Amino acid sequence: MKLFILLIQLLHFCKAEKPNVHFFFRTAHPDVEFHQKRLTAAKESVLSQAKALSSQDRVFADELEKREDYYSHFLVVNALPYVKERLKENTAWIFIGEETTRVELEFLLPYIDNLDKSHEPVIIGRPLFDQEITIIHHFFGSSGSEYKTFGFPDYEAGFLINIPMLNALIR
């Protein structure tokens, strides 16, 4: 009987649903063919890796913004409602990167699969810090010393956010 219960548990573990991941890439210049080709290559790379890993049913890739909305969505936070509209069902994680960001799904998917299924807002990525007030003023203004401790996402490296973080950023 114990062996039977163990087998049932093992089958359940093997069938455990893995979270969907939706990749969004943004381009530096939507009207320049060179950049459009790099954007297309970034999306195709993710999708071909997903197919090679038999994960094409849970990995999706799109452009961060529509070409006509590029300038109003240049700040990623402005594009997030559009991102939310495009998410596939059961998406748990969103990856945002640049047209030049390279993703290795072979390593990223197992990492995502082992993340806590928390309902707390989460962002995972490489933070950038200003040595002097350079970029932080776009977020907080130009006073105070927050720029020394506030890490903002490195878009070139890409970053992950979960659905609770997406919802918090949209509010």
What does this structure look like?
The chain is α/β, with parallel strands linked by helices and 171 residues long. It contains six helices and seven strands; from the N terminus they run H-E-H-E-H-E-H-E-E-H-E-E-H. The chain has helices at residues 2-15, 33-52, 76-86, 105-113, 137-140, 163-170; strands at 20-26, 59-63, 91-98, 123-125, 127-128, 152-153, 159-162. The strands form two sheets. It has a five-stranded mixed beta sheet. A two-stranded antiparallel ribbon has the order 5-6. Helix 2 (33-52) links the parallel strand 1 (20-26) and strand 2. Helix 3 (76-86) crosses helix 6 (163-170).
Strand-helix topology:
Layout: H1 2-15, E1 20-26, H2 33-52, E2 59-63, H3 76-86, E3 91-98, H4 105-113, E4 123-125, E5 127-128, H5 137-140, E6 152-153, E7 159-162, H6 163-170
Parallel strand pairs: 1-2, 1-3
Antiparallel strand pairs: 3-7, 4-7, 5-6
Helix pairs in contact: 3-6
